[in-house]
Automatic annotation (TrEMBL), chain A:
GO terms for molecular function: hydrolase activity; proton-transporting ATP synthase activity, rotational mechanism; proton-transporting ATPase activity, rotational mechanism. It is a single-pass membrane protein. It is found in: Cell membrane; Endomembrane system. InterPro entries: ATP_synth_B-like_membr_sf, ATP_synth_b/b'su_bac/chlpt, ATP_synth_F0_bsu_bac, ATP_synthase_B_chain. It comes from the Bacteria. F-type ATPases have 2 components, F(1) - the catalytic core - and F(0) - the membrane proton channel. F(1) has five subunits: alpha(3), beta(3), gamma(1), delta(1), epsilon(1). F(0) has three main subunits: a(1), b(2) and c(10-14). The alpha and beta chains form an alternating ring which encloses part of the gamma chain. F(1) is attached to F(0) by a central stalk formed by the gamma and epsilon chains, while a peripheral stalk is formed by the delta and b chains. Belongs to the ATPase B chain family. This is ATP synthase subunit b.
Automatic annotation (TrEMBL), chain B:
SUPFAM superfamilies: F1F0 ATP synthase subunit A. Gene3D superfamilies: ATP synthase, F0 complex, subunit A. Keywords: ATP synthesis, Cell membrane, CF(0), Hydrogen ion transport, Ion transport, Membrane, Signal, Transmembrane, Transmembrane helix, Transport. It holds the Pfam family ATP-synt_A. This is ATP synthase subunit a. It comes from Flavobacterium aquatile LMG 4008 = ATCC 11947. One of its GO terms (molecular function) is proton-transporting ATP synthase activity, rotational mechanism. NCBIfam families: ATP_synt_6_or_A. The chain crosses the membrane at residues 159-177, 221-242, 248-267, 307-328, 340-367. The lineage of its organism: Bacteria, Pseudomonadati, Bacteroidota, Flavobacteriia, Flavobacteriales. PANTHER family: ATP SYNTHASE SUBUNIT A.
């Protein structure tokens, strides 16, 4: 111990403390702080990079499942659309059919009506013709009948006989 | 070539085990006389306030190691004994003796001469500067000179080492800091080697001991102290012969800083546990308070002693083994001690890292203790 105390050099102590404390302060400003900051930053960077890679992976998976979902949705929609279209088509055909039938029936009806009226008209004309013809015939027959006296009287009698009977 | 069926390192270990028996037998018979002579000579020399080189090899090595462990006022790689020439360079001497006295350490001529500056005379004795008269005589009492010691703010070898390491750290870590911005958050260059250690200090020293919330404000200190101790430990293993972290003054200053930071950043809970320990009977609280208070001082004290003792021990052992090479002067002994020195050097590198780690770890632990939040009573250990 005595040797230690004897060896102690105050001048060296002062130099050592001054240089060492100066060194700490200088290195703190120019070395340790930038080094530790850079290392921290690098470590943070690595951590963030790993994390973002993980996130990207997850996102990719999400996207993939989203895509699949979208695809399925699109497919379903397409199917629905097709079905609807088919239904519309069927309905349109049906409607057309029904309409056509109705129109046809109507046309037939009209035709029938027209035919009937034509027929009636023709019948009426025929009747008129027949009546006028029969009148003419009757006139001629009567004229013939009424040309001799006997025949006239016979006719009148006959007619009277008929009328009595009525 | 098969010498024996035993594994090779077993034989090596055996050789090492027998080595001291062989070696101590040889030179001891004549060394005592020389040693005595050397001691007599050093005593004589110290009276004149001048060093004399001891002649004996062992004593010389011991002297060299002791000299190495001390701080030095000049920087020498090598010295030629015969011509007394030293290879290296002088360092500035700064003394506070009625104003700053500033001169070169070359004036001391490696502690052999009296330095005269501004009409004052100074003598360098065991790397301490004493004020003397013109003759350079030291008045000794119980082996310690009683002369006035002016406050010594010299740029010694240790100060030079600290400055070099501080500069190196500043350059390395600012370049690392800049490389992040330039390179998009990835380190480049020399600093890159230290990035994992910075992260290690953060993730395995600071966060587990201090806690996720509060570790940030201590990071600068922990990182600086870790690399400071580590670099100085490694510098101590270079052949330049620095022994900075094995210097009591340095470890004391580091420990004091840890103590001050712990004390001034501690929360109420920490002081509560020191002065009024919860969960124990009231009389015990009075007994525990001084113990706990003493504990706060013992903790940094142990930090100081641990680092100092480890580094000094490492240097002494390593230098002794290197010294053995010159004592053996036989090819078996010298090459074995070379191998041992090599193995120990590698071990010392491990120790350099380990001691830096332990100092930082324990500092973080003390900071963590000072910042512990109040838990349930049974959560305390």
């Amino acid at each position: 111990m005595e040797k230690l105390i004897n060896d102690f050099s105050f001048g060296l102590f002062i130099w050592q403390v001054v240089i060492f404390v100066g060194l700490i302060l200088l290195l703190k400003k120019f070395a340790w702080k930038p080094i530790l900051d850079a290392v921290n930053e690098r470590e943070e960077g690595i951590k963030n990079a790993l994390l973002s890679a993980e996130n990207a992976k997850k996102e990719m998976q999400n996207l993939k499942s989203d895509n699949e979902k979208l695809l399925a949705e699109a497919r379903a929609e397409r199917d629905a659309l097709m079905k609807e279209a088919r239904e519309i088509k069927d309905k349109m055909i049906n409607d057309a059919k029904v309409e056509a039938q109705a129109t046809g029936e109507k046309m037939i009806e009209q035709a029938k009506a027209a035919i009937t009226s034509e027929k009636n008209a023709a019948m009426a004309e025929l009747k008129n013709q027949v009546s006028s013809l029969s009148l003419e015939i009757a006139e001629k027959v009567l004229r013939d009948e009424l040309s001799n006296k006997e025949a006239q009287t016979k006719l009148v009698e006959k007619m009277l006989g008929d009328a009595k009977l009525n | 070539m098969v010498i024996s069926k035993k594994p090779l390192h077993f034989i090596a270990a055996l050789l090492v085990a027998f080595m001291p028996l062989v070696s101590s037998a040889n030179p001891s018979n004549d060394s005592t006389a020389v040693e005595a002579h050397a001691v007599a000579k050093t005593e004589e020399a110290s009276h004149e306030g001048v060093h004399a080189e001891p002649k004996d090899e062992k004593a010389k090595i011991k002297e060299f190691i002791n000299h190495h462990l001390l701080d030095s006022h000049s920087f020498y790689f090598n010295a030629d004994e015969e011509s007394g020439k030293h290879f290296g360079f002088s360092l500035p001497i700064i003394l506070w003796d009625n104003g700053f006295q500033f001169f070169s350490s070359s004036k001391f001529h490696n502690g052999e001469e009296v330095a005269e500056h501004n009409g004052n005379f100074y003598v360098l004795h065991h790397e301490k500067i004493y004020k003397t008269d013109a003759s350079g005589k030291l008045n000794e009492e119980h082996g310690h000179p009683t002369n006035v010691r002016p406050l010594d703010f010299s740029i010694t070898k240790s100060v030079l080492g600290i400055l070099l390491i501080a500069l190196l750290m500043f350059l390395v870590f600012t370049s690392l800091a800049k490389s992040y911005a330039k390179n998009g958050g990835i380190a480049k260059g020399i600093g890159r080697i230290f990035e994992p250690i910075v992260l290690y200090v953060r993730d395995d020293i600071a966060i587990p001991n201090i806690g996720e919330k509060k570790y940030k404000k201590y990071m600068s200190y922990l990182l600086t102290i870790f690399f400071f101790i580590l670099f100085l430990n490694i510098l101590g293993l270079t052949p330049f012969g620095f022994n900075v972290t094995g210097n009591f003054t340095i470890t004391a200053s580091l420990a004091i800083l840890t103590y001050l930071i712990t004390t001034f950043t501690a929360n109420k809970n920490y002081w509560g546990h020191i002065f009024w320990m919860p969960g124990v009977p009231t009389p015990m609280k009075f007994i525990l308070a001084p113990i706990e208070l003493l504990g706060t001082i013992i903790k940094p004290f142990s930090l100081m002693i641990r680092l100092y003792a480890n580094m000094v021990a490492g240097h002494v052992v390593l230098m002794s083994i290197i010294g053995l090479m010159f004592i053996f002067k036989s090819w078996i002994g010298s090459s074995l001690s070379f191998g041992l020195a090599f193995a120990l050097s590698i071990l010392e590198i491990l120790v350099a890292f380990l001691q830096a780690y332990i100092f930082t770890m324990l500092s973080a632990l003390y900071f963590g203790a000072g910042n512990e939040e109040h838990h349930h009573e049974d959560a305390h250990h």
